[in-house]
DNA sequence: TTTTAGTTTCAAAAAGTTTTGAAAGTTTAA
DNA sequence: TTAAACTTTCAAAACTTTTTGAAACTAAAA
């Protein structure tokens, strides 16, 4: 296997992984392509490499910027926009965790808060409802705390803790 | 808000959450419905409550059994099958982590292993490729270790560690 | 054996998501 | 100005996933 084949393989697999995580294939592949590139790339290069349309490339690049995983750059004397990925994997993970927290954890916690204010009787159904929702809230709040903490913590603290934990 | 409304709200939101996680709405909703039920339920009850077809209910219930999140039960003198959910949230999370590990972590690690065996030159592209894939493998292997560890560890060990960590 | 009560399957339809490509918009240079 | 280089938008097309519903299947009861 040479570099081109290895790159291709990795980009494809990153696309598959993304799509099982609710991130569309093109977005995940652009992310992989830019992570692997030492130089920033133009929309045309992305289109050419991944065989996707201009609209698709543009939309997903903007989504990646929105997620804080890709940045724009201008080169002196050039009108084109250049794109490059966040390379520090710790930052990549922090960004993803922060975004997913905002999109997923916050809404479910809001619902849990709302339903916990409901007037619920002491029937078996009512008791079970209270128990299950309370348990879920307790676990989610722990994860939520962990993410908030990780977001604040420095570069490698979290990974060091993780390493110690599993050693 | 009464119990029925609260249940409805929670089931709907669990469906939304599931679908951003690559789990289809019906599957997530059936799971929520069964988690909230103190008694096991039949296919007809699930169909009625969630307003879905028999085929859909059957398919997704089997998928939930496959994921180890739902069990079947027979009641003496009855021909119908009854379904109930795993209620211990720790077990639920362990199961989900185990399944996702099998479906996602294992394949990407395999690809990372393959590409790390590729013959890659020392061009800037080659160097970047090696660096990025090595970094990713190192992080993924830590998570992988954590999941394996959690899978083996008892009931609340993990949550206790988590609690201590974020306190 | 035949009927009845249930479960499973799967092709087709519906719904949802992604992608395209061309037109509209924007910015810089001539 | 006007033209050229580039980016953005968005309706329609392509593709993917989910859902339906009826037929096939299975097992227990009559």
Summarize this entry quickly.
The structure is a homodimer of 167-residue chains. The first copy, chain A, is mainly α.
Summary tags:
homodimer, about 170 residues, mainly alpha, 7 helices, about 5% strand, DNA-binding
Describe the structure.
- The structure is a homodimer.
- Chain A has about 170 residues and is mostly helical.
- Chain A has 7 helices and 3 strands.
- Chain A has helices at about 5-20, 25-35, 45-50, 55-65, 90-115, 125-150, 155-165; strands at about 40, 70-75, 80-85.
- A 3-stranded antiparallel sheet of chain A has the order 1-3-2.
- In chain A, helix 1 (about 5-20) runs antiparallel to helix 2 (about 25-35) and helix 5 (about 90-115) packs antiparallel against helix 6 (about 125-150).
- The longest helix of chain A has 29 residues, at about 125-150.
- At the A-B interface, helix 1, helix 5, helix 6 and helix 7 of A face helix 1, helix 5, helix 6 and helix 7 of B.
- The structure holds a DNA duplex (30 and 30 nucleotides).
């Amino acid at each position: 296997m040479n570099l081109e084949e290895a790159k291709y393989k990795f980009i494809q697999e990153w696309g598959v992984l993304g799509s099982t995580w609710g991130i569309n294939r093109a977005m995940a592949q652009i992310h992989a392509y830019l992570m692997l590139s030492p130089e920033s790339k133009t929309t045309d290069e992305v289109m050419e490499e991944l065989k996707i349309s201009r609209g698709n490339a543009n939309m997903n690049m903007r989504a990646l910027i929105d997620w804080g995983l890709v940045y724009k750059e201008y080169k002196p004397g050039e009108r084109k926009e250049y794109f490059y990925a966040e390379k520090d994997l710790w930052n990549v993970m922090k960004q993803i965790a922060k975004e997913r927290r905002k999109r997923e954890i916050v809404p479910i916690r809001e619902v849990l808060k709302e339903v916990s204010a409901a007037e619920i009787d002491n029937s078996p159904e009512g008791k079970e409802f209270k128990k299950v929702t309370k348990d879920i809230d307790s676990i989610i709040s722990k994860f939520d705390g962990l993410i908030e903490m990780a977001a604040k913590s420095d570069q490698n603290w979290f990974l060091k803790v993780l390493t110690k934990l599993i050693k």
